Amino acid sequence: MGESADDRTAGPGATGATLFNLAEAFDTVAGTIPDTEAVVGAGKRLTYAQLADRSNRLASYLHGRGLRLRTERDQLAGHESGQDHVGLYLYNGSEYLEGMLGSYKARLAPFNVNYRYVEEELRYLLNDAKARALVYHACFAPTLAAILPDLPDLDVLLQVDDGSGQDLLPGAVDYEAALAGAPASRPPVETSPDDLYVLYTGGTTGMPKGVLWRQHDIFMNAMGGRSIGSWEALASYEDLAAKVAGGGLKLLLLPPLMHGAAQWAGFIFLNGGGTLVLPDDVTRMDPADVLRTLEREGAHSITVVGDAILRPLVDEIERGDYDLSSLLGIGNGGAPLSSGLKERLLGLLPSLFISDAAGASETGAQMSHLSTAGSVSTGTFTPGPGATVVTAEVDALAEPGQEELGWLAQGGWVPLGYLNDAEKSARTFPVIDGIRYAVPGDRARLRADGSIELLGRDAVTINSGGEKIFAEEVEQAFLHHPDVADVVVAGRPSERWGQEVVAVVQLADDSTATADDLLDEAARHIARYKLPKAIVLVPLVVRSPSGKADYRWARDQAAGA
Q: Per DSSP, which regions of 48-118 are E strands?
């Protein structure tokens, strides 16, 4: 399956079939089951009708403030956007979903803002996206206030009251007041399947990159356009209405919606007529709160990100006394689950199934595998449509059973490109034998039986608790300290986080800097979760003759520390 080089946005099955828009898909569901609860938790209970009303009002407000589609898709290159951009700087809550849906209804392009970013990172992201509007929780107002003078494109500030007591920033409007004063009808615009879905992800040097998808493509790939397992694609909005007429399941969503995996899981359930359940505390992962919520709401599934999320839940299940009889399965994505932890959970809940999914911001959902009691595996997946492996040279499809490592690739419904970056777009989305693929940089091997062995992102990425941390970005943060002569950053295994960051540092001669001094400086440039868990001091950082970092040596230093 795939796109031709000349018709790169068509996607498989496009001819003669309905092309979907995310706003229209949601309103189809809301019109079919208006009284079903769509979002529960974090202090609110909203039906589909109520969520539709609130997103309509947000769309009308943003349109009334002058935010618009500027250029239609067919007049743009793949790395260009013709829509005004709306940043979502929020913890999980109905406001996040309203921000996405309301923007789509106004033909705007919302994008995710990592709420862990420090001022330097936040400034870069909002300027790179040329954000015209920002919806943010009040607790983030102090960080935002410090950089507002550096954000010339930002016109609209909507501040969501979160009980933190922060005053409105200058020029900001209270979110609920904005909705209350806006028309309940959608703005007078006609949506398109070509409207953008934008997802920011870290680049190979750690700088965030905005991945641009057509809404039809991401809907089909990862947001409810296909049936899980059978991969059968919806052919019309009427088919969608029929699919959800009987309602759906309840998903307890734990990962932050600022990550693509959480957005995809959430919209799969919403576009399936289900209910998204949120814990009472969305600012941190409290295992007891999660299990009390599951018990109270009768959730059928939980979404997690690797051992760092699941392990505390398993610990709490063993300690506590919870009625988990409604729970049918665990969905995992973004970081691997260890086989030992799966076996431990299945020993407690033997009727459970655990689904591991693999994919990336640049590929969408690609492949999965199931673990059940007595049948546990990790790292090998059954590919979905379009998922494949290309050769190391990225010039042909890999042959099944070859020992040579290749690159995990995706054909079919794939992104248009990276925002503002034509060169990187061309590298990541190459055309092979006339078909355009997404090849974001995960090493993989295509086995003889057609399954795919996933070996992980190449070179310098460290996956710690589901967060992708790029070694080069951490290195640059350390190099801001004047006493750091050289530094290489690597990951080492961690029972809690999967991997943890370690900095191997060469100090300048006669330096008296301490590890705390180095961490304090680095914390001014990167979020806390990216900071190393350990610092190893060495007399000389080993590099190749060309000056490139020797990451294999660095990993050995980190492991031996």
A: 85-89, 109-112
> At 230, is the pLDDT very low, low, confident or very high (cuts 50, 70, 90)?
confident
**pLDDT category of residue 127 using cuts at 50, 70 and 90:** very high
- Report pLDDT for 12: 55
The residues near 431 (Cβ < 8 Å, ≥ 6 apart) are 5, 437
Domains of the chain: 48-222 (3.40.50.980), 226-381 (3.40.50.980), 388-407+423-457 (no CATH), 461-560 (3.30.300.30)
Task: Spell out where 384-448 has E strands.
Answer: 387-390, 406-410, 417-418, 431-432, 435-436, 442-446
What string of H, E and C letters represents the secondary structure of 266-294? HHHHHCCCCEEECCCCCCCCCHHHHHHHH
What whole-number distance in Å separates Cα of residue 341 and Cα of residue 155? 48
Q: What angle do CA 174, 154, 123 make, to 5 degrees?
A: 105
What are 244-295's pLDDT values in tens digits?
998 899 999 999 999 998 999 999 999 999 999 999 999 998 999 999 999 9
Q: How far apart (Å, rounded) are the C-alpha atoms in residues 224 and 316?
A: 32
